[in-house]
Amino acid sequence: MHFKDLENFGGQEFGYKGEKKMIIDKLKKFGYCVSNVDYQSEDDAKKIKQLVGEGRVVCVRNPAPVDPADLVTLYKNIGRVAVQNEKVRGSGVGGFGELVQVKSDGLFQGKEDGELVWHNAVLQKSDGEDIVGMYMHHIAEEGGDTYFSDGQSAYEDLDESLKEQLDNILAKTIYYPLADEENLSKIIKNTHIYQIFPDEDTFREWRDVDGKVVYTKQVKTKPIITTHHISGKKGLDFPYIMLRGFVGMPKEESNNLFKFLCEHVMKDKYVYCHKWNLYDICLSDQVHSLHKRDAYNGFRELWRAGIWTRK
Predict the structure, then answer these.
(1) For strand 57-60 and strand 32-35, is the pairing parallel, antiparallel, or unpaired?
(2) Cα–Cα distance between 248 and 305 in angstroms, integer?
(3) Distance CA 149, CA 288 (A)
(4) What is the Cβ-side half-sphere exposure of residue 248, based on CA atoms within 13 angstroms?
(5) How deeply is 82 buried, as exposed, middle or buried, from its count of CB atoms within 10 A (0-12, 13-18, 19+)?
(6) Cα(7)–Cα(27) distance, integer angstroms
(7) pTM, two decimal places
(8) Residue pLDDT tens, the chain, 311 long
């Protein structure tokens, strides 16, 4: 975390019974930065979960490496954590199936230059992880910044008549028919999915915390306005890369609304760019936020975990 990204460096202290106190700062646009985290503390984890719901992203500064066991403890104190098996490339960091390597020849590899498009963990699924934990194990020589969007504030800034309209429409998703094995292989090779899954085994085995294989949870329509289960506030759940218009709306009207929402939610004031320091953790909301990655040079390795806090 670069200090220039902080609105109030040296911010609020948070702790209980004289124990080690977690320090909370606000980021310039939205979200929070925390330090001095006790990885064994259920109270610190509970507070971090609350901050993710309120701010869309929480960045944790660490002056030294964090042991995989401590990462998993923090994540499990926040919620249930998805466990991947050995067929998922890069799974099992430190012997923990909850942690998966993200790098150029692994999951979320992105394009040839490392760039990864805007996305979240739900996309066109019925449900999914509502927080993703990202730990920077090895920083790139250049580039590799991660961007986070704020769909909650973007919704709040819309006029009331448009909010009412959006509350009552469904978006049509890009739905992949997966009835036969040949079609499945073509989908992996010829769509953006290749940027996420490095091989067919990983695609077939990647599971959510409920144990269901991710690609089997597709839906054909979904609401774009949802109420956040942590903050209780409405916001845009608009993963536009996997949407293609709106149900029951004339084509021109649908296209115009789609274009407007894409431009609106990507306005500069709703996007935070995180320039990584070694050992940073970013906990990213997957309900009212998207994230993407810049191209980068050199070796880069991040450890990812998917967390569910919904009951």
Answers:
(1) parallel
(2) 37
(3) 8
(4) 6
(5) buried
(6) 5
(7) 0.93
(8) 444 455 544 566 666 554 679 999 999 899 999 999 999 999 999 999 999 999 999 999 999 999 999 999 999 999 999 999 999 999 999 999 999 999 999 999 999 999 999 999 999 999 999 999 999 999 999 999 999 999 999 999 999 999 999 999 999 999 887 766 666 677 777 777 888 998 888 988 999 999 999 988 999 999 999 999 999 999 999 999 999 999 999 999 999 999 999 999 999 999 999 999 999 999 999 999 999 999 999 999 999 999 999 87
Listing DSSP states for 197-251 in one string gives -SSHHHHHH-B-TTS-BGGGGB-SEEESEEE-TTT--EEE---GGGEEEETT--H
Q: Alpha carbon of 244 to those of 58, 164, 211: distances in Å?
A: 30, 21, 28
Amino acid, single-letter form, for residue 168: N
Token pair belonging to 57: 């992203």
Which domains can be identified in the chain, with CATH numbers?
A: 1-311 (3.60.130.10)
